[in-house]
Amino acid sequence: MVAMEMQQVGHDARIYEPHQHRKYRATEFRKFLTRIDAQVPEGLDVHLICDNYQTHKTPAVKTRLQNHPRFHMHFTPTYSSWLNQVERFFGFVTEDLLRRSDHSSVQSLEADIRKWVSEWNTNPTPFTWTKTAEQILESIGRLLNRTSGAGH
Fold first, then answer.
1. Where is the Tc1-like transposase DDE domain (predicted)?
2. Cβ atoms within 10 A of the Cβ of 85, count?
């Protein structure tokens, strides 16, 4: 789990320290929400972009969200992770860190990721779309034309 601060166009994309639980259950997600609640200044709404994983929809999570109305859940459609800017963040981690490193333990990997995030946050840059919606839809149309009927 990771949280990004993206309040307005042109605002630096600050990355909050990734949640450090190795398991990903409703219990850990609620702890993540509590941590973000403490880090984001009061008075600001928190918009969560999540996949459709059941962890985000348990009764305990729903109750917590009802009790914290500044939190707003947005679920990405199935098979659309490319729309999620957090996925782009993971792409940066992969390109800048993971492909160029070797870790002998999970703890070493986690330490390197925390260091990378800390360095990112010293000079954050905004995430921006480089294509228009029309260009993206045209690209998807070309992909569908190539793969339609291909037995997938």
1. 22-109
2. 13
